[in-house]
Design goal:
Collagenase (Catalytic Domain); 2 domains; 4 helices; 17% strand; elongated
Amino acid sequence: MPNNEKKIISYSVQPIPSLPDEKIPLNALHKALETWESLNPNLNFIESDKPDFIIRWQVYASDTHSGLATCNSMLFGILNQCVLDISVGDEDCSGKYVQNDENMVSNIIMHEIGHALGLGHNTDKSSLMYSDESPSSNFDSMGFIIPKKFEELYVGQKLLLEQDKQLRIQIKSLSDSISRKHLQYDEYYKHYKYYENKTLSAEEFEKAQIALKKLNSEAEQINLLIDQQHKLINQSNSILDVLDCHPNFDVKN
């Protein structure tokens, strides 16, 4: 289709299945359609009882696809009456249901709309139309401006990632404090070592006791900081365990 040719594309949407957040699929659909239209003013998507494509929601992704466009070809290579199967969630490693966030669902819809418009797969991994399933190194955009992918996560992951980020900042700050405390400890130890294995006068003994007190105090502070750091590391590891269980994460320890 020439880039300047007006194209009205009709669609229908099947009912939203029972989900933890049932607003996400429709919000994602509107976002996907508006993104295609904003980049390609010649495209106009309208909801209709006689649709060019049907959005069909899948509660779980399949083993091979998070989305699937099944279309009947017409003359001149224009695809018609497509069914776009759009997954809205998946299982984590423990069998718990995790719902796709709005961006993830939008990406899936935008990709499948690309197929409904006649686009194939791209070899560019950053491209919306990328897939390892029959990609073409000579990808033909057919005159369309292809939307860029949104950052995508499962519902709740953004909060977990932000929590882990803040924990890592605190862990780093504690590491810096511990390093400084170790330097101070070494200085106090030098002072205390001066008095070791010596016969001390009363004045020297008092100085040695002061040095030992400072040394022990510094050691206690270091141990407290290390305990705090270990607690934060355990919290971070717990978050990573949750994330690593999600289908889109592979946490490397």
